[in-house]
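Hey Z.,

So I finally got round to the copper (II) ion thing we talked about over coffee. Here's the setup:
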Amino acid sequence: MSVSRFTSSPGRRYVRFVCSWVYCTSDTENESASRAITVSEGDMYLHPSATVVASGKVTFTVTNGGQAHHEFVIVTGDPTGTTGEPGKVTETNHIGGAEGPEIGDISPGQTETLTARLTPGTYTAMCNLPGHFGAGMHFQFVVQ
Ligand SMILES: [Cu+2]
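And the result:
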């Protein structure tokens, strides 16, 4: 079956290949590109695959390799030294406001994703469960 489908329109397949990989690539990047960062988190760390991304729709794929539950929250700027709820830094600058996107809980061994449309600036990704930011569960990244 696959042989007959392939041989019925070899020309069209070739044109589609050229378009998607040569002529249309720049449009895709400018308007609907999804920037991806893979994050390993655990007890008590947060390690990103990249710390500079292009603005637009950025997808974070977060795997909890630790023994404890963790979360994944993004704020603008650097909340280091601020005070939020007991044991936490403030989430005043949470992306998208207080109800903006985040991953509220990642069980040990699980992978969750978060997609957010980000404008240029400096951001901090963190686990803000009590004591976890202070223990080292955060990193900064720049959106260009
Ligand atoms: Cu944590």
